[in-house]
Design brief:
Order of helices and strands: HEHEEEEE
Largest sheet: 2 strands, antiparallel
Length: 123
């Protein structure tokens, strides 16, 4: 159910998006808004920090999005862009995985976390 909520939250058409009208073009992707959407799922007691990743400029590795000074992960988008959910991993319990799923491209680079949307390379 958590996976579906994340997919619906990032979906560009209604009834998806943060307000049910679809994800707005150019709206920045904020890890805290995704955490809020997850926290609203019935049965979820707590949410570990969401980790955002984006592809390297050569597209071979997943790189964690740098956090700003407040600890927030943010991917800014151009006015014509939408987020692309390329990979999603959800863990249950305090012993859930802290790395990208097996077989994920770039999973061996030591970056741990939850791969969420990336900015599309081509429009």
């Amino acid at each position: 159910m958590v996976s579906e909520v994340i997919r619906r939250h990032l979906w560009p058409l209604a009834p998806g998006g943060p307000d049910g009208q679809g994800w707005p073009l150019g709206r920045a992707l904020d890890d805290r808004l995704i955490e809020t959407a997850i926290a609203r799922v019935p049965g979820v007691r707590s949410v570990a920090p969401v980790r955002l990743f984006q592809r390297s400029t050569r597209g071979r590795n997943w790189l964690p999005v740098a956090e700003d000074r407040t600890g927030r992960g943010l991917i800014t988008l151009s006015a014509w862009q939408l987020p692309e959910l390329a990979m999603l991993s959800v863990g249950i319990g305090s012993t859930s995985s802290t790395s990208l799923p097996p077989g994920a491209e770039g999973a061996g680079n030591g970056a741990g976390g939850l791969a969420i949307p990336v900015v599309p390379e081509l429009c």
